[in-house]
Amino acid sequence: MSLQTTLYRISITFFILLILVACGGSVPSGSESLKASQSINGDFVSFDIHVFGEGTEITTAGQHLMEQPLGVIELRDGEHGNDSVLVMAVHGYDSRGYEWITGLKNMATHYGSVFFFRYDWEQCPDQIAANLASEIKKIEKSGKYKKLIIFGHSYGGMVVTYAASGLGKLDADIHVIAAPLSGFPKLLDECDKLSYDSGDKLKYPEWSNSVRLIQHKTVHAQDGAFRELASDPQEVDLPFYQSHELPPTMDGHRLGHNWSVTWVLDQHVGKPHRL
After folding, report:
1. What is the pLDDT of residue 81?
2. Best mean pLDDT range from 8-22, 32-46, 66-80, 197-211
3. Is residue 182 part of a domain?
4. Percent of the chain, pLDDT > 70?
5. What's the structural domain count of the chain?
6. Using a CB cutoff of 8 Å and minimum separation of 24, what contacts does 197-204 make?
7. How does the average pLDDT of the chain come out, rounded?
8. Are 226 and 257 in contact (CB under 8 A)?
9. Most buried of the four, 57, 63, 210, 213, by CB within 10 Å?
10. Contact between residue 42 and residue 73 where contact means Cβ atoms under 8 Å apart
């Protein structure tokens, strides 16, 4: 290699480094790549679900998901979209996010785009529900949606059950996953506006006949969030459209509180797991 060629290559390398420094840049890390993929679509953050790619640890992806601003987050499958079905996912109390990643990726591939609702879990479920119903109605008006599907896990299951009455006559399926619908010790101590029946179980406002509530219950004795309680907080007298008992195992492992999300979402899009 001639001296002239060598000097030329050194000059090009130096020039590229100068550009990176001037832009405050470096080769982005995995987390930075996730952030760089985000965009603002109207009033909410939007990014391609495939940024979570096969090589990304779900714990990191879950952390990134839960670092998003409070409110609605859109998860797209590239440019593909399905404007006929509005899908909303609602996390639980103190969620780490990882329990949603696999299911959300499959859901976005199936429907084109889904929405994830981030909320302040220090608020009472009826307050969060009012915000959720308001956000859903705003999104619903912006598209050509014919159907609404909501998935709410744990505390989020309580939220979506309260939200049911605020959806009016929307055609909606609400999937409630591993949710302590009857109430949960200490969690609701500051929520003095909630109503209870004679058995000291939560009472929810009535919802329209166009809204179908579907319950997915974990096995009480092996659900890490419920097994220390004397009675199963999933047991409640509500007009469920359907109620399903989840199996004790998934892919040969215990099916507990968090992995119930993956089971239900994957079953919904036709990617079932083995027992």
Report:
1. 62
2. 197-211
3. yes
4. 82
5. 1
6. 197/237, 201/236, 201/237, 202/158, 202/236, 204/161, 204/162, 204/164, 204/165, 204/238
7. 85
8. yes
9. 213
10. no
pLDDT at 47: 85
Confidence of residue 152 (pLDDT cuts 50, 70, 90): very high
Q: Considering the domain boundaries, does residue 53 fall inside one?
A: yes
Cα 65 to the center of its chain, rounded Å: 9
Q: Does residue 26 register a pLDDT over 80? A: no
Q: What are phi and psi of 149, to 5 degrees?
A: -125, 125
The radius of gyration of the chain's CA atoms, rounded to the nearest angstrom, is 22
Name which of 18-22, 62-66, 199-203, 240-244 the model is least confident about: 18-22
Residue 224 belongs to a domain with what CATH number? 3.40.50.1820
Q: Does residue 17 form part of some domain?
A: no
